[in-house]
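User: Hey, my collaborator sent me this sequence without any context and asked if I could get a structure. I don't really work with proteins. Can you help?
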Amino acid sequence: MITTELAADEAGVTTATIRKWVQRGHLRSAGTQGRRRLFRLEDVFAAERTAYRARRHDR
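Assistant: No problem. I've predicted the 3D structure and written it out in structure-token form, which is a compact way to encode the shape of the chain:
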């Protein structure tokens, strides 16, 4: 499991984008480490695909 910061690095987006994906329901945290959210890498990539598909569909 990875932190928000690492998830953002892996997906090539900002941490704000990761938080927005969570807010919009594209991504769910898999747990916490203290106050930090943790994500599965495969979930981050799935959320990335979903978010970009939704964005293309809105055009």
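In plain terms: The helical segments are 4-11, 15-23, 41-58. You can pass these tokens on to your collaborator as they are.
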